[in-house]
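step: validate -> pass
step: tokenize input -> pass
step: predict -> running
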Amino acid sequence: MTVAVETKAALHRVLSNAAVLLGGRVANALMGLAAISLTARTLGLGGFGVLILIHAFAQFLGETVKFQSWQTVLHYGAKPLAEGRPADFQRVLRFTLALDLIGAIVGVAAGLVVTLWFGDRLGLTPGDQPAAALYVLSVAFMVSATPLGLLRLLDRFDVLARQTVLVALVRLIGCGVGFAIQAPMEVFLFFWAAGVVAGFVYVAWAAWSEVDRRALIRAFAWRGGGLTEGMPGAWRFAWSTNLSATVEVAFTHVITLAIGALVGPAQAALWRIGRQVADAIAKPARLLTASLYPELARLHAGDGGSVSMWRLARVVAVLAGALGLVLMLLTLGGGEWLLGLAMGPQFAPAATLMTWQVGAAVIGLVALPFEPMLVSLGRAETALWVRLAVCVVYLAALAPVVTRFGALGAAVTLVIASAAMALGMFWCVLHNRRNHPQGVTATAQKARP
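step: predict -> pass
step: emit ->
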């Protein structure tokens, strides 16, 4: 198979898998916006702001302690799976499941300590802290990423599409009940957590059923040699991907928490509303990331060459960027109308924030394939250092900017930070390509006449 044919086949799988996910994510986005609308209309700006702070803290905690074990499954599991080595594949699963368990224990323990003893630092009142403590129990179901990695590696993106619909549906039904009875915040928190639990149970069951059907876990045992035997650099890789994802959280949940702590829950609610709409608008293009990782892992595991990987990344960047620009134009034309229709007039100030947030998301879409490519090439630490550098500068500027300009200041600086992140990742990919040039892969050379 030539490099061009190999790249075309991989791109076809990327787009096909993204298309499978698209239906689920569109439904998820629409139902998610409906659930937020019902919650916001019931609780009002202040009450919704408190709920958002609790939810943002739980998600921040989940992303911080999560080892991104799905990336480890792809990175170390693709080759033994392709070569028919189930024992080595099971060793990868033992390691990633151990990572998930560690993350769940640490996350729940840290969440209980912070919400019960330091909740006031998050902008929560003493009356809000017990509900927040109960909500952080859902972190245990947020950190398990091994099932996601298995389903992506085995091309079961249809399951992931159904999972997103299930989560949103459970949350929407619950919020509908809460809206009908004008329930207090605690009821809405319960149904938001119920969606997380339902999604986890479904994905875990589906992943286990799939690997069992393929006879990949026969004679599986928790003990069997060293935890990372045959996986050179596994702990280093796990920590790098964990820290990289943790740094990325600074551009989502940390900003919400900082705005709530500095200028109050109401501003945090406006920020979160704008971000929710921006994420929903940009989500179709971001679906390419989920399907891109396994294809890059397969290309790298197959021959280690970079030509096919580079071509695939370049095409995906162009496609995602073009789609992002279209979505940006749609936001400018109808974003404010959509926001007013969904949330009500008291949330109208979020429209300006949303425009800046969509701009930041579009920049991220253009740079979408760069980090997956670095991770697939074993350069996860490089991606981490880029994120860390940008994050440190951004967080250093966040407090004074928010204090002076409010949430709008955070939105403008987010665009600047996203541009810096994109340029940094792009430079690292180019630098790696120059240092490791490979005109053609061994496979492509053999295929030539």
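step: describe -> Residues 439-449 have pLDDT under 50 and may be disordered.
step: cleanup -> pass
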